[in-house]
Amino acid sequence: MLPVFLINLDRSPDRLAFMCQQTERAGFAFERVSAVVGAAVPDWLWTQFTGPHELTDGEIGCYASHLVVAKHIVDRGLPCAIVLEDDAILDLDFMSAATAAVQAAPDGWDYIHLCSDFKRSVVSIAEIANGRHVVQYTRWPVNTAAYIVSASGAKKWLEPRSRVRPNDMDNRYCWLQGLNVYGVYPAPAKQSNDFESDVGHRPGKKETRNWSPGFVSCVYGEAWTAAKIGYSKYLAARAMNVANSIRKRFTGKRRVSVIKPAVRGH
Fold it and tell me: What's the rounded Cα separation, in Å, for the pair 128 and 28?
């Protein structure tokens, strides 16, 4: 069974109890990792958050917590591990879906989303149990409530650099770190809305922050994504995105298209 790390603040026993119920129901155990508080980032990470940025203390603590888990994975020589935040709602087949995703993912994968809110078309790499697929994205999601990270992905994360965005936004711009990102669709987890966010907001300021790495970088990111997916599949997926947006405008219903691998003849 895949190792599982749960990030949980010491001051949040209610969330810990919630996750204990979730994982017991789903049939697996986890190792709790005490979440980092923004004002007490470990010395080995502190200088990476000291440059100009607009991160809240909660965002710094969240980012540092995920990096601490990545360090556990590397230091222990684990090939990969599941990482959970303490507000994830898990399907009963969560562990089997995660295990199947690791087995089906292409060599060199770094990160597999298990808790995506799918809004754009995806390209299927493989079909796994219960109608789920291991997929590539045409638009990279932002969510770190549940995911799998490989040793290679953890090492890429841990490369020292200035951290100027929240960790989920850094993962969205995955070409900046060279992350090979995949996902599971439909996702076997979702994020609960029953808990108040621990990340927090900037007092007295509107949330108008722009995390984009810039126009040129984003254009490069589109080309990078197309190369990863394959140009013909990428163009087909983008066309489906346009068609689905038009359909949503008239019907009010969102649709996610899944481009499946071609079946070869015998």
Answer: 20
Tokens of 5: 């790390």
The CA distance from 178 to 180, in Å, is 6
pLDDT band at 202 (very low <50, low <70, confident <90, very high): very low
pLDDT digits (tens, 9 = 90+) for 227-261: 999 999 999 988 888 888 888 888 887 778 888 86
User: What angle, rounded to 10 degrees, do the helices at 231-251 and 215-229 form?
Assistant: 110
Q: Do 127 and 100 meet the contact criterion of CB atoms below 8 Å apart?
A: no
**Which one, of 11, 65, 15, lies nearest residue 40 by Cα?**
65
SS3 148: strand
Report pLDDT digits (tens) over 36-86: 998 889 999 999 998 888 899 999 999 999 999 999 999 999 999 999 999
Token pair belonging to 208: 């108008």
Radius of gyration of the chain, Cα coordinates, nearest whole angstrom: 19
pLDDT tens-digit readout, 121-155: 899 999 999 999 999 998 888 889 999 999 999 99
How much is the mean pLDDT over the chain?
Answer: 90
Pick from 51, 54, 9, 71: which is nearest to 210 by CA? 54
- pLDDT of residue 265 exceeding 50: no
Half-sphere exposure of 109 (CA within 13 A, CB side): 24
Question: Alpha helix locations (H) across the chain?
Answer: 13-26, 43-46, 57-75, 94-104, 151-158, 167-172, 215-229, 231-251
Assigned token pair, 254:
């969102």
Judge contact between 105 and 138, C-beta under 8 A. Answer: no
Question: Cα 228–169–210 angle (5° rounding)?
Answer: 115
Q: How far apart are CA 163 and CA 175, in angstroms?
A: 15
